[in-house]
Amino acid sequence: MTFKNNDFSDLLTNRRSVRAYDPSVKISKEEMQQMLTEAATAPSSVNMQPWRFVIVESDEGKEKLKPLIRFNTTQNDTSSAMILIFGDLNCYEYGEEIYNTAVEVGKMPPEVRDQQLAAILPYYQSFSKEKMNDVIKIDSSLFAMQLMLVARAHGYDTNAIGGFEADQLAEAFDLDPERYVPVLILSIGKAADAGYESFRLNPETFTTWK
């Protein structure tokens, strides 16, 4: 998907925090997959792509999620889907597949792949759980922001949700809680109202020039 400069500016400046959606609007699995594919071009440290998703769209899935999202039940009840974004602490296990495919499609020469994997895989495997947790949360958050912009380009709205039972989310949706770290939840759908605008500090307030 390509944007003109003014189109992209509109995506940023006209974004609203949407809590209530039109429950009659359902996003097809095909379009959801397309949006995830587009969002997956987000930056990723050494291209390990640690983001993992559970798309909660069925009534049964939303009922299971409802007690775990605290005060965010309106989004759950009305959205087309709730996208649970996790970070994979063992993301490096996909390293060879990622780099081998890069070679196959002509994005990387074999010798670069070999050099990179020989350096990256032992390095990632040496990380403490705390350090890996930081890496995967940064990458998964970059993905989430890109997905929010992609959704806007497709005509949908989103709300980033951090208020949920993080210690229960993975296991509730059949993921290994020792491996998959909840990062955030995105509700997605067609807004039922204009949503909320919010004030942002001027960059001069938090920027230092040297």
Short description:
The chain contains nine helices and four strands. The protein is an alpha+beta fold and 210 residues long.
Layout: helices, strands, pairs:
Layout: H1 5-13, H2 29-39, E1 51-56, H3 59-65, H4 73-78, E2 81-88, H5 95-104, H6 110-125, H7 129-153, E3 157-161, H8 166-172, E4 180-189, H9 203-206
Antiparallel strand pairs: 1-2, 2-4, 3-4
Helix pairs in contact: 2-7, 5-6
**Unreliable sequence segments:** none
First-residue to last-residue Cα separation: 37 Å
Based on secondary structure, the structural category is alpha+beta
Overall geometric form: globular
Quaternary structure classification: single chain
H and E order: HHEHHEHHHEHEH
Mean pLDDT: 92
Largest sheet: 4 strands, antiparallel
| Structure summary, number of beta strands | 4
Helix share bin: 40-55%
- The order of strands across the largest sheet is 1-2-4-3
Report the C-alpha radius of gyration, rounded: 19 Å
DSSP strand (E) fraction? Answer: 5-15%
The helix tally amounts to 9
Would you mind describing this structure in some detail?
- Residues 13-190 form the Nitroreductase domain.
- Belongs to the nitroreductase family.
- Keywords: Oxidoreductase.
- By secondary structure, the chain is an alpha+beta fold.
- It has 9 helices and 4 strands.
- It has helices at residues 5-13, 29-39, 59-65, 73-78, 95-104, 110-125, 129-153, 166-172, 203-206; strands at 51-56, 81-88, 157-161, 180-189.
- A 4-stranded antiparallel beta sheet has the order 1-2-4-3.
- Helix 2 (29-39) packs across helix 7 (129-153) and helix 5 runs antiparallel to helix 6 (110-125).
- The mean pLDDT is 92.
